Amino acid sequence: MRKVKVLIVEWEEQTIEKIRLLLDEESYDVSIAKDGVEALQIALQKVPDFIMLSVDLPLIDGVKLSQILRTNPKTESIPIFYMNEKTLQLSHFRRNIDYFIIKPFNLDELKKILVTLKKKILSIQDKKYEEEFAGNLKQMGIPDLVQILSINHRTGNLYIYSSNQNVEKPLAIVAINEGKIINSKMGDTTKEKAFYRVLSLHDGYFRFIPGEPLLNEEIKVSTDSLIMEGLRQNDELVELRKKIPLSAKLKLNIKLSQLPENLRPITKEIINAIEIFPEISDLLNNIDATDYEIYKIILALVEKNIVTLEVDNKKEEEKRKLNFSSDIILELKKKVSKIFFDSRLCSNIYVLLFVSDRTILSKFVKFLGALNFEPSKENIYKLIDSKIELGYLGKIILVDGHFLHLFCFCDKNISFPLYEGVFKNTIGAIVLGKRDNFREALHILNKKHVVIDGKESNDDTIKRALEKVFEYFIQEA
Fold this sequence. Notes:
Blueprint: E1 4-9, H1 13-22, E2 28-33, H2 36-46, E3 50-54, H3 62-70, E4 80-84, E5 99-102, H4 107-128, E6 133-136, H5 142-151, E7 156-161, E8 172-177, E9 180-186, E10 189-190, H6 191-199, E11 205-210, H7 223-243, E12 249-252, H8 265-274, H9 280-285, H10 291-303, E13 307-310, H11 326-339, H12 343-347, E14 348-355, H13 358-368, E15 373-375, H14 377-384, E16 390-399, E17 402-409, H15 416-423, E18 426-432, H16 439-445, E19 449-452, H17 459-475
Parallel strand pairs: 1-2, 1-3, 3-4, 4-5, 14-17, 14-18, 18-19
Antiparallel strand pairs: 6-11, 7-8, 7-11, 8-9, 9-10, 12-13, 15-16, 16-17
């Protein structure tokens, strides 16, 4: 019987320990987050069975975090325990799914609720994991397998694994409801894009497990149409990849401001993304369109000389990596340990990024790659494309176990309560472009900020700017 995955999102150590005493290690796989940003990362990565969420959190409060989780297909159905000192009216609270607990809570009462919920979750999982049949893809290909499930109106999840049957984590999953494919997931890709990639797999093995589909319905076309279109696109992809190899890099030959206004949205999206993800493989994984559609558009852009292909047939040289001065990192760790009482904050520090011109942001993210940067890909493109005004950009690995997190604002009129709450655990800020739009916010930071002219920035400039922020923080009385 598998463990129930629970995410505890709480700032207070005492409350965390009380909850952990109720969750025995044999039955629960427990993850801990102490601010909203970290909780969002863990929730998207691990997809827990339920979340125990304190309303009072740094960076992103519990109410806002739960609203974000509700809008993401991966996390929208997760039950949430809201924990607060007083009751709240929540418009997105779901009866018979979510719970509200008043602090300080009664441990016996909470234990009864947890036992009931655990039984419910495990009962559902037992049904989901009742294996019906499995096999080798060499003996039965994906198209035949899916058509058999469709003809028999099966409901459940089709897992695709690598050729090594000892590997537990599946390569992909196809969710099926009454014989109809409703969604698919392979890596970070979903919907038709993921299913077409699944169709191209010929090695490995499969398991079909009956039960409730694990993915929300995102595919609307019939299964027969989906298979036929996927096979067609995959056939044509073989020829397109001969012209544009995965090892190729893309380079824009014109400025974004020179692009025609009547471009299709998907074409504009790809051109904007090239600034951040010049490598074909990265671009394919960060655009929602199918691989075939992306290849066709890239080929058209190359033919019109809007984009140039750079193909290196030799082994690619190791990318340039920059490291911060070991002395300044040591001083930074000492300073942080004196100011932040919480051990988690000592190893996770925050720098804010204020952006007055989003065209500069794409260059900034690109240069961060030289600094051991792990991007939050879901947020980066939305920030650059003006789909969101603020968001978590990603983290830089300073040394083992110590991270620098970047939180981005792209708005000249930030509300005071928002940035005041975020500043609580921040060591400084970087401004991309003009600082005038953020005078009120920067006033709170005093001198702990650095301005970068986006037109002249490069990886060395960004490294020096961050070190300057570190120095301001270290020298602060």
